[in-house]
């Protein structure tokens, strides 16, 4: 007999040599046996001493461990029992004692429980599908044998035939937490027919300990009225919000377009002669005075009368010399559709006290008697309104004011600028005219402004 003997040097401080260790596998259970390998060479039992077992070089003791001849018995095996074990004994030969040890690398695997398989889906439930659609349903099983998971439907077995309208497609997933295999099989219906509705499609799974089954039923999809109502309401609210936002931004342009395209007709038959009665404040002089005079007597008529077709009454231009101011103002206000008040940038209370009768009459007509609509225009920003009459402050608070900014130029004196659109928006409707032409300002306007400076 021949045998191979290997001699190796034990590493200092190492009680186990993994290179020569024997691998053994046990399963989680109530008990398991670990064999000390190769002790059968020493058959003469009277020359061999009892075997002691170590785990990671620590002597095994306690109620969970027992010894049967040279084997180790472990009770209530768990995955924590895996590791490196050593069985050790002595052997006497020709009066000399020898130490014998064997190393075991122990692996603990989770043993599958002895129970029927489980189906996690389907769960005897139904799903809503549309006619003609493609449907895929997974049958997810745990603990079943791979070849014992299958679908049945329409009274027969559904096989893996891809030429059919209904077929199955098996595949395997990883193991579950307790070590049992997990298998899935897809039910694929390439096109749902009317005969598929209200018919149970059954997934069946089995192993050595039993068989289970679970079904799924296809139902016609019912329109979600609540979802449609909610979606419609949200869409309506969004549309309303967008419409209001657009109207707020483009309100003036829309109103002017409507007047020019739909309401392009002659003035209303209301017995009125003038579209606006222009009332301007007085100033102490200087550049502000000439700027206000230029706006009232040159620019305002040029834009509103020549470009837009309005008829204005401007005191000092339309009245006759020697006429009583109060009488003219009273008669003209009755014949006017709007009262236009123009405030200079240096307007103060004393400036408004001039022509008191005319101004008081205009305010009386606007606020109390006839209720004529007022258009308030500011020539640049007025810093302090406290010095102005209470009636002006009331009009400012109720109707707001249109503010002129910047110098007089060809562009700023076009009827299609933002300032003049605001003025036209507050003026009454007029006959449609063309605003394509831009009226050039006479040089005398700039000269007058220059004189004031």
What layout of secondary structure does this protein have?
Layout lengths: L21 E6 L3 E4 L17 E4 L2 E2 L5 E4 L2 E5 L7 E11 L2 E14 L8 E4 L3 E5 L5 E8 L6 E5 L2 E3 L7 E7 L9 E8 L10 E8 L2 E11 L4 H37 L14 E5 L6 H21 L4 E3 L10 H10 L3 E6 L5 H4 L3 H14 L3 E7 L10 H10 L2 E3 L13 H9 L16 H10 L1
Parallel strand pairs: 1-8, 10-17, 18-19, 18-20, 20-21, 21-22
Antiparallel strand pairs: 2-6, 3-4, 3-7, 5-6, 7-8, 9-11, 11-15, 12-13, 12-16, 14-15, 16-17
Q: In percent, how much strand structure appears in the residues?
A: 25-35%
Tally of contiguous helical segments: 8
Classify the fold: give the CATH topology of the largest domain.
Answer: Rossmann fold
How many distinct beta strands?
22
Element order: H for helix, E for strand: EEEEEEEEEEEEEEEEEHEHEHEHHEHEHH
Calculate Rg over CA atoms.
Answer: 52 Å
Poorly predicted runs: 348-355, 432-453
Large-scale geometry = elongated
Mean model confidence by pLDDT: 79
- The end-to-end span amounts to 132 Å
Spatial strand sequence of the major β-sheet:
1-8-7-3-4
Reported for the largest beta sheet, the result is: 5 strands, mixed
Number of domains: 4
Structural class: alpha/beta
Proportion of helical residues: 25-40%
Q: In CATH, what is the class of the largest domain?
A: Alpha Beta
- CATH architecture label name of the largest domain: 3-Layer(aba) Sandwich
Summarize the structure.
The chain has 453 residues and is α/β, with parallel strands linked by helices. 25% of the residues lie in helices and 29% in strands.
């Amino acid at each position: 007999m021949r045998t191979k003997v290997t001699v190796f040097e034990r590493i200092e401080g190492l009680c186990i040599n993994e290179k020569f260790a024997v691998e053994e596998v046990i399963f989680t259970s109530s008990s398991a046996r670990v064999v000390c390998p190769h002790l059968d060479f020493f058959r003469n039992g009277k020359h061999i001493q009892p075997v002691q077992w170590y785990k990671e070089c620590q002597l095994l003791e306690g109620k969970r461990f027992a010894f049967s001849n040279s084997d180790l018995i472990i009770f209530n095996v768990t995955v924590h029992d895996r590791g490196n074990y050593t069985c050790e004994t002595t052997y006497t030969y020709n009066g000399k004692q020898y130490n014998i040890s064997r190393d075991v690398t122990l692996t603990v695997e989770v043993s599958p429980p002895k129970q029927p398989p489980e189906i996690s889906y389907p769960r005897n439930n139904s799903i809503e599908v549309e006619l003609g659609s493609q449907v895929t349903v997974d049958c997810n099983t745990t603990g079943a044998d791979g070849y014992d998971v299958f679908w049945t439907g329409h009274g027969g077995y559904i096989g893996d035939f891809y030429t059919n309208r209904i077929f199955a497609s098996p595949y395997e997933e990883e193991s579950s937490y307790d070590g049992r295999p997990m298998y899935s099989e897809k039910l694929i219906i390439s096109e749902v027919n009317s005969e598929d509705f209200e018919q149970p499609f059954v997934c069946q799974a089995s192993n050595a300990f039993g068989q289970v089954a679970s079904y799924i039923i296809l139902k016609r999809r019912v329109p979600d009225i609540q979802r449609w109502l909610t979606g419609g309401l949200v869409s309506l609210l969004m549309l309303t919000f967008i419409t209001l936002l657009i109207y707020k931004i483009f309100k003036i342009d829309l109103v002017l377009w409507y007047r020019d395209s739909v309401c392009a007709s002659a003035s209303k038959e209301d017995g009125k002669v003038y579209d606006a009665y222009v009332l301007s404040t007085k100033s102490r002089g200087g550049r502000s005075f000439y700027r206000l005079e230029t706006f009232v007597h040159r620019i305002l008529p040029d834009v509103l009368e020549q470009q837009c077709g309005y008829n204005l009454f401007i005191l000092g231009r339309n009245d006759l010399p020697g006429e009583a101011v109060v009488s003219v103002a009273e008669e003209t206000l009755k014949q006017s559709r709007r009262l236009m008040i123009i405030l200079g940038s240096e307007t103060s209370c004393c400036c408004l006290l001039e022509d008191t009768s005319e101004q008081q009459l205009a305010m009386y007509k606007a606020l109390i008697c006839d209720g004529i609509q007022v258009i308030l225009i500011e020539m640049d920003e007025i810093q302090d309104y406290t010095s102005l009459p209470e009636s002006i402050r009331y009009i400012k608070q109720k109707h707001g004011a249109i503010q002129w900014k910047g110098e007089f130029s060809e562009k700023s004196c076009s009827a299609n600028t933002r300032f003049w659109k605001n003025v036209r928006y507050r003026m009454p409707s007029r006959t449609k005219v063309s605003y394509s032409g831009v009226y050039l300002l006479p040089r005398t306007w700039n000269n007058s402004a220059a004189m004031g400076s």
